[in-house]
Design brief:
single chain, 451 residues, alpha+beta, six-stranded mixed sheet, 27% helix
């Protein structure tokens, strides 16, 4: 297992904020951060703050604003808020630096590193995005952050990749979610690390550690004969989810875990015991513990991971220790509950390093460890990835600004805006027909002699 102090502590959080912009996140994030800091105290005599913190959001702001490209101001605001809260609740008043932030429409990701350790060794930082909505639009899709931590295990160090995604909704759209995932793998491409520019475009799997989080929208597909389906009232069915043993049984109907076991999605990724906490969707807004009975409660919000020492022949085991994996029920402004995980990475393996006279930047990339994958799976970059990305972005802007204009015309209502637009259009057409119908053909009204 290695010296516990050599093992990096990574905290990951994910939250679908239900298009709430600034109102989607409480001012005090202690509920989201404090549990991890308390649990981490078992690692040493004193509480230990995470070395790396990654926070992902979905539905960051109203969709028309996201499509119109107005996400940057919101994510800048979140950055200041989150970093302030991380440092405020750090057990030993540790300070953090932003490694990178990236946003596409409503999907956002921010990664921070502790100043007195990892932050000083972070280099080769990259950000990427891709859309998987209709015509590759960004209403669904993923964003990613990749960086190298130098002098970690070897001079070349290790590469970390974080991906935050929002996949297609609704229980019956399982095939669309699977397609979304494979589209993300093939189009969320990272160029060669700046220190190694000759390296070709690579997928998210070309890394030492991979973390995948977000509102993945996989549902609990309960058979019609199950008691949860046949309960006489929705309230009775939902009450069954308060029992941990029932949830452990229900996990066998979770679409994600079944598709992953069958090797159709999230190949090589592991996950903690998500059934230990209640389903994160769909809640009644404003309520801590009340589900909307029109939908089957599901674990839509997930955090997965893998590392280069994980064996592809043991897909349910990981060298990463999952210290904590839970949801935060106190957040009530969304129909989702945020999730958080605290992961202890394995101690770095010492790899062949360059000679003392060779600078870190000159060490070839082959010395950075990479994830082993099953022999049956080889992720390949899409040669049309760039074309698809920017086609989607162009459509995002067209739809976003048109939608925004309709809302302005409708004084805040899209429906009223469409109605007003149609009224203006019909009036304009009528006025035009009247004008030209009463003119002599050159735009001059016809004068009729009354005599």
């Amino acid at each position: 297992m290695g010296d516990i102090n050599q093992r990096l502590l990574v905290q990951i959080g994910s939250y679908n904020t239900n298009l709430q912009t600034g109102a989607g996140l409480p001012q005090d994030l202690v509920d989201w951060l404090a549990p991890t800091l308390q649990v981490s105290s078992f690692l040493s005599k004193e509480q230990r703050a995470p070395d790396i913190v990654a926070i992902g959001f979905q539905e960051l702001l109203p969709l028309h604003l996201g499509l119109a490209g107005r996400s940057k101001a919101v994510i800048d605001e979140r950055d200041v808020h989150i970093r302030t809260q991380i440092e405020a609740h750090a057990p030993n008043k540790e300070s953090y630096s932003l490694v990178a932030k990236v946003v596409n429409v409503g999907v956002a990701l921010l990664v921070y590193a502790k100043d007195d350790a990892i932050a000083r060794r972070v280099c080769d930082v990259q950000t990427q995005w891709t859309g998987s909505g209709p015509a590759y639009m960004g209403n669904k899709g993923a964003v990613g952050i990749r960086f190298r931590v130098a002098d970690h295990g070897s001079n070349a160090g290790e590469v970390f990749t974080f991906v935050c995604a929002h996949l297609t909704a609704h229980e019956t759209h399982l095939k669309h979610r699977i397609a979304d995932y494979h589209h993300i793998v093939r189009t969320l491409l990272f160029p060669g690390l700046p220190s190694f520019p000759n390296e070709p475009l690579t997928t998210m799997y070309a890394t030492s550690h991979l973390f995948f989080l977000g509102d993945l929208n996989f549902r609990v597909a309960i058979p019609p004969s199950h008691p949860l389906r046949t309960a006489s009232r929705g309230e009775e069915a939902v009450s069954m989810l308060t029992d941990e043993k029932t949830r452990e049984t229900l996990k066998e109907y979770d679409q994600l875990i079944n598709e992953r076991r069958n090797g159709r999605v999230f190949i090589g990724l592991r996950e903690g015991p998500f059934w230990m906490f209640k389903c994160t969707y769909k809640y009644v807004l404003g309520e801590i513990d009340e589900y909307n009975t029109k939908r089957t409660p599901s674990w839509t919000d997930r955090i997965m991971y893998t590392t280069y020492t994980d064996s592809p022949t043991a897909p349910d085991k990981s060298e990463i220790t999952n210290i904590l994996y839970t949801s935060i029920p106190s957040y009530v402004t969304s129909d989702h509950k945020p999730v958080v995980s605290l992961l202890l990475l394995p101690a770095p393996h010492t790899l062949p390093a360059a000679s003392p006279s060779t600078p870190t930047e000159a060490v070839p990339p082959s010395t950075t460890p990479r994830l082993p994958l099953p022999s049956t799976y080889t992720p390949t970059p899409d040669p049309l990835a760039t074309v698809k990305k920017y086609t989607g972005r162009m459509l995002d802007r067209i739809v976003g600004y048109t939608w925004w204009l309709l809302i302005i015309v409708g004084a805040g209502s899209t429906a009223v805006g469409v109605f007003n637009f149609l009224c203006v259009y019909v009036s304009w057409k009528w006025l035009g027909q009247w004008w030209w119908g009463s003119s002599n053909g050159n735009g001059t009204p016809t004068i009729v002699d009354a005599a």
